[in-house]
Design goal:
The chain contains eight helices and five strands; from the N terminus they run ββαββααααβααα. By secondary structure, the chain is mostly helical. The radius of gyration is 22 Å and the shape is flat.
């Protein structure tokens, strides 16, 4: 009896750099689009380690809701942009919470097996959203007790300069929406952030924020 062996490729990487990867001869072995498509799959890993290269124009939210900031940006807008790669429409954390709230029990009871089961569950979540909630619920926001949420992980060295810088970024996140459309935005943002420690409280600033939520019907 003759035994024949067939070779095939098996994915064995747990991390891969997002770039055009080349071998020692300069030939391309993996393109950035291929890396993104491999990451956006229901297989591990589910963590995005990001620098400034992952701030804009990339969607990694399909199967990921945790981001590690490999370094810290200089301003809160860039921090928000990085986390926006995984905090998007019907993101992973949103779908996990919708599935936990409805899931198989709802599908067994009412779904007629026609159409997309996810669309059916989101329609149930939309039907049951609290009175007065905006249209962001449940597609962009859907929080439940003990549910999944966007995870921000920042590896900081104790007593390093990044520790106070990170605390400063978090304070600035509370006020940066106030400066939309204003001249010299960075100066105004810096001023309002400093005033939080002197005159204004976060509750005061929240009354001045520009709401980007759709109108409530």
């Amino acid at each position: 009896r003759k035994v024949e062996f067939e070779t095939y490729n098996m994915r064995c990487r747990f991390a891969l750099r997002f770039a055009e990867l080349k071998d020692e001869t300069g030939a391309t072995v993996a393109r950035a689009d291929t890396v993104r498509e491999a990451f956006n799959s229901p297989f591990r890993p589910f963590i995005l380690a990001s620098t400034s290269i992952g701030q804009e124009g990339l969607d990694f939210h399909t199967w990921c809701h945790s981001v590690i900031h490999w370094n810290l940006p200089s301003n809160p807008v860039d921090l928000e942009q990085r986390e926006g790669r995984i905090h998007r429409y019907k993101g992973h954390a949103i779908r996990k919470n919708v599935a936990k709230s409805y899931g198989l029990s709802a599908l067994k009871g009412a779904w007629d097996r026609n159409g997309d089961p996810w669309s059916f569950m989101f329609e149930l979540a939309k039907r049951d959203r609290p009175s007065g909630a905006s249209d962001l619920v449940p597609y962009w926001l859907y929080e439940i007790e003990g549910g999944a949420q966007i995870e921000r992980r920042v590896p900081l060295l104790a007593f390093s300069r990044e520790v106070p810088h990170f605390h400063r970024l978090k304070r600035m996140l509370a006020v940066y929406r106030l400066v939309f459309g204003q001249p010299r935005q960075e100066d105004l943002l810096e001023y309002l952030t400093n005033q939080m420690n002197n005159t204004f409280s976060e509750s005061d600033l929240s009354q001045w924020q520009i709401s980007l939520e759709p109108p409530i019907e």
